[in-house]
Amino acid sequence: MVDMSKHMRDALNNVPTQKIFDFSQYTSTIDGIVQLTIGEPDFNTPEHIKKAGVQAIENNRTHYAPQRGTAGLLSAISDYLNDTADVQYDPKTEILVTNGVTEGAFAALSDIVNPGDVVLVPTPTFSIYTADVAIAGGIPVEVDTSATDFRLTPEVLKPYLDKYGDRVKAIVVVNPSNPTGVAMNQKELDAIADLVRGKNIFILADEIYSELWYDGQAASIAKSLPEQTILVNGLSKSYAMTGWRIGYLAAPKDVVSNIFKVHAFAVTDVATFVQDAAEEALRNGRKDYQPMEKAYIERRDVMEAALKKMGWQCTAPQGAFYIFARIPSFLEQDDEKLAYDMAKNAKVAATPGSYFGKGGEHCIRFSYATALDQIKVAMERLAKYCADRQH
């Protein structure tokens, strides 16, 4: 019998499974465990958004949608970006509705990356970018930001630009960051933009956590460098719409037209009634995230104080809903081994930092997207776990 698995695309041999989800799936089988792994808001989608989706179905908005997106949602996205990020995109030619940020990032990288192209991916970061680049036949190069407290700076980036030169096709900028919670301000983003301005380098800007920005004014590198930026965003986090799979991409007209080809052949379109619900969110739900944000800040403060008391070193999160903490010296320093041991013996599930790339080693990501009472239980269990291992 012929083993056809040996005759598949070579590039996929360099694509790992998503350990983040594999680990979360494993820990979910442990009875009584507190899950602090996946970035899944424990809030429900706001009622007015759900009703808009139901109404759309009742109105038979269940047929194919325009492939770029419904006119109403495209217009709402354009207005939203103008109002919140001070960036202007033509809804007819410069915006594309996608099946979440995941599809938007995949379509963008599939379109711009040629075999052998280098894409710089600041790490620690979520795992999709390196995988997407590898699938496209490119070379993902991790840029370790741990020495600058997980902030991307021109000084960190420049040696990579010098080393790879014209091979660099794109730089990924996730702001605020998953897993670190770091949120770069506009001045910092301007400095990154100045470094690549006028070069044949794209910026892939993932701003999925842009509404969950705790300190100061939200910033966007699309404002700094619109002609070279491909902006991806969505409603999963700020509107608790993870299961709706709704996102969008914005870029210059000709760039969007090319990315549209990947989108159209891969997914055809996004469900019409989902787009109607998203339009309702962006038109009439601009303040929906505020109660969630208030709850996240309270959870963050409780979790951060508890972890520091145990001896964990924490980078204070300025956005998103994660604490990325360095493991105390008295615990197992292999973050993966520690995470599995914590799950087994403390019944606390948190994600190994090494799953997020270089610079994530010896760290653990704790998600505070779960309820406060569960966070308190987890911190009590972890405190006992740490105390037992100090003696």
TrEMBL record:
The keyword Transferase applies. Transmembrane segments: none annotated. InterPro entries: Aminotransferase_I/II_large (IPR004839), AspAT/PAT-like (IPR050596), NHTrfase_class1_PyrdxlP-BS (IPR004838), PyrdxlP-dep_Trfase (IPR015424), PyrdxlP-dep_Trfase_major (IPR015421), PyrdxlP-dep_Trfase_small (IPR015422). Its EC number is 2.6.1.-. PROSITE patterns: AA_TRANSFER_CLASS_1. It is an enzyme of class 2 (transferase). Coiled coil: none annotated. The keyword Cell cycle does not apply. Its cofactor is pyridoxal 5'-phosphate. Residues 33-382 form the Aminotransferase class I/classII large domain. Keywords: Aminotransferase, Pyridoxal phosphate, Transferase. GO terms for molecular function: transaminase activity. Belongs to the class-I pyridoxal-phosphate-dependent aminotransferase family. This is Aminotransferase. It comes from Limosilactobacillus coleohominis.
